[in-house]
Write a structure and sequence with these properties.
Blueprint lengths: L2 E4 L7 E8 L3 H12 L4 E4 L7 H5 L4 E2 L4 H5 L6 H11 L6 H20 L5 E2 L13 E3 L5 H14 L3 E3 L3 E7 L5 E7 L5 E11 L8 H7 L7 E2 L8 H9 L3 E2 L4 E8 L4 E2 L3 H4 L3 E3 L13 H9 L5 E6 L1 H7 L3 H8 L4 E3 L2 H8 L17 E13 L2 E2 L6 E3 L5 E7 L19 H22 L1
Helix pairs in contact: 1-6, 1-14, 4-5, 5-14
Length: 443
């Protein structure tokens, strides 16, 4: 149970300049940046090993104007990136955060490269909404590899990390200044830590059925493919504090969650000519609009499922991604030598099959998928420096939020999610929040 405890005095055996709740990409990037600035910090992570939403993602971070882009001959700019973010959200994304995050993510990626994270830009396809190749990935192409590399870099930089430490209480005084936190540790131990600045880098609310029913009713029956730690703690603390909340209708869905194997299939297959067919063999939407809104389209089909259908060229691309290889090994991939065979796989009349199949087959490859909720994009209202705002827009003295805990840059609907917005908010938000914390401590 999460609580806000108001007190004039908070005694704790440990005091740190900055406490960070959550050791996913946001918290780890913030910790690395703080240590680069010579500031001590402690990360409080509820799991035994840092993972969170980052570990379940593909690990692709959009950033503009990086050294890696320049080395690969890719021309990009912060202005172009910000335009793409705003365009995907149809102007709904918070302009102050669009600019701040588009500006910050490039320097963050460059600095992480100096900490041993060797990024490359995916240049063989464009994700929906991006006009330029700007998805940065480690060689492994998994979120698990990304969070492991960030974890190692944060420890090497001198950040302190407490795992199996679930923060349950925030202690604040009458002026809303955060005094410290209490975290539950194994065997019932409660750890109290005082801090000068608190950064909430913890979670969204996709793992809370009650909050999803309240705030995202269109996804109340959808598979939740995110991290169970996304229990809405930041939302609950924010409500108790009187903080502003924003963009609570924004989220990242995915229209390509493999069933029954339970794995993510890359949308690159769709962007390179694959199609989605329903149980009648019919194509039901434009797949190039985006994988997030595709979740709603897929769930609206008979049985709430669809078939990703593609040819040999797309299969070769899919096999570059570890998640797909694992799903294929588990039996997800079906192959037909002709239209009749594909119709038998889908269970429809061959005459009903979409004419777009002529793009790539035969042979035809098919994977059964559903729409899933991955993570939410709404949360605490923050300014461009990641300072948490009250309902009236005024600022809390020393409370920061970023990543899944705060509003993102996807606006207030599923279709506003530009590919990579989750990790953009995490990486850029962690970077911005760290520099804000440093400024507050020095001021």
């Amino acid at each position: 149970m999460t609580r806000v405890v108001r007190t004039a005095r908070f005694d704790a055996p440990v005091h740190v300049p900055v406490a960070i709740v959550g050791a996913g990409a946001c918290g780890l990037v913030a910790a690395i940046a703080l240590r680069d600035l010579g500031i001590d910090c402690v990360l409080l992570e509820r799991d035994a090993t840092p993972s969170g939403s980052t570990a379940l993602s593909s690990g692709f971070i959009p950033a503009a104007g990086t050294r890696v882009q320049r080395d690969q001959g890719i021309a990009d700019s912060v202005a172009l990136f910000a335009e793409d973010i705003a365009a995907k959200s149809k102007g709904q994304a918070a302009p102050h955060l669009v600019q701040a995050y588009a500006q910050a993510c490039g320097p963050a990626i460059d600095r992480l490269g100096e900490h041993g994270l060797h990024f490359e830009v995916l240049a063989n396809f464009l994700y929906p909404g991006h006009r330029v190749h700007r998805m940065h990935s480690l060689r492994e192409r998994t979120g698990a590899a990304l969070v492991a590399a960030l974890h190692a870099a944060a420890i090497d930089a001198g950040a302190d990390l407490l795992t199996s430490a679930r923060v349950v209480d925030l202690y604040v005084d009458d002026s809303d200044r955060v005094l410290g936190v209490a975290a539950e540790r194994p065997r019932g131990v409660v750890e109290r830590i005082a801090c000068d600045v608190l950064l909430l880098a913890c979670n969204g609310f996709g793992g809370s059925p009650a909050l999803v029913r309240e705030l995202l009713p269109e996804m109340r029956d959808a598979t939740f493919a995110g991290h169970q730690g996304n229990d809405g703690s930041a939302i609950l603390w924010g409500r108790a504090l009187g903080a502003g909340l924003a963009d609570l209708g924004g989220y990242q869905g995915h229209g390509s969650w493999v069933v029954p194997q339970g794995a993510l299939m890359t949308w690159a297959v769709m962007m390179e000519g694959g199609v989605q067919l329903n149980a009648k063999g019919q194509r039901f939407h434009n797949e190039t609009h985006g994988y997030s809104e595709a979740a709603v389209d897929v769930l609206a089909q008979p049985g709430g499922t669809a078939w990703n259908v593609f040819g040999d060229r797309q299969l070769a691309l899919a096999r570059e991604f570890p998640d797909f290889r694992e799903a294929e090994a588990a039996g997800a991939l079906r192959t037909a030598s002709d239209r009749e065979g594909l119709a038998a796989i889908i269970g429809c009349d061959p005459a009903q099959l979409a004419p777009e199949l002529e793009r790539f087959g035969p042979p035809f490859h098919a994977v059964r998928v559903t729409g899933a909720l991955f993570h939410t994009q709404g949360g605490l209202a923050i300014d461009a420096s990641c300072r948490v705002q009250r309902v009236d827009g005024s600022l809390f003295p020393n409370l920061l939020a970023a990543g899944g805990a705060a509003r993102g840059v996807s606006g207030n609907a599923v279709w506003g999610y530009l590919s990579g917005n989750g990790l953009l908010s995490a990486v850029a938000g962690g970077w911005v929040a760290a520099h804000t914390a440093a400024n507050q401590l020095q001021g």
